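hey
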């Protein structure tokens, strides 16, 4: 089995003005595509490993042969993170958490606004390239974290329900050095229905 780049779940210009079409096209068609190509190259002599679901590979990197471990970590992480990221956004967004997720947000942070404030601190505090995350624990509680490079919460046995790419390639064409503006604008396109589905599927 080889890993494949799926089409974006919406037209590349449909997240404008929050994320411009050119950024989406390069980000998905070049950056994400390269992670997929490099992941397949790393695994080409390891068919048993390549047959496993990617989340299981990333959750058990210690079982990946050392000679390809860094390549799998970076490119497997890159593929998984971007698959998640595209599906966490939707044209027009879906405004705010609802139901059980909204209750968990209030319990963990006091309010949705406070979640956004703390998430922004994590996104801006990640020096260089990486991701900010909202993770759900098995008991339903929530926490904010961040990771460098293409690492992700799976590698720490945690369940990500929201993730924001803060690599410059994700925002530089439109926002240049203004990462804070990108983070603030991003809430306009978050698909909270998908976040809620991932929250319900935690284990
Ligand atoms: Mn990216």
């Amino acid at each position: 089995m080889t890993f494949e780049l799926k089409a974006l779940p919406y037209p590349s210009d449909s997240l404008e003005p929050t994320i411009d079409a050119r950024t989406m096209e390069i980000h998905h068609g070049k950056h994400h595509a390269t992670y997929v190509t490099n992941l397949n190259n790393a695994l080409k002599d390891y068919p048993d490993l390549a047959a496993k679901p990617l989340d299981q590979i990333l959750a058990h990197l210690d079982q990946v042969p050392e000679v390809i471990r860094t390549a799998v970590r970076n490119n497997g992480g890159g593929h998984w993170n971007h698959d998640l990221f595209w599906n966490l956004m939707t044209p027009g967004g879906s405004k705010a958490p609802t139901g059980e997720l909204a209750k968990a947000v209030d319990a963990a942070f006091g309010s949705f606004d406070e979640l956004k404030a703390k998430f922004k601190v994590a996104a801006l505090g990640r020096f260089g390239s990486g991701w900010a995350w909202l993770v759900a624990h098995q008991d339903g509680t929530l926490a904010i974290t961040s990771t460098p490079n293409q690492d992700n919460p799976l590698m720490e046995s945690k369940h990500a329900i929201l993730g924001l790419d803060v690599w410059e390639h994700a925002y530089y064409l439109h926002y240049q050095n203004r990462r804070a503006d990108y983070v603030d604008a991003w809430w306009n396109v978050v698909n909270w229905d998908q976040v809620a589905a991932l929250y319900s599927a935690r284990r």
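The chain is about 50% helix and 10% strand. The chain has two domains: 21-87, 99-200.
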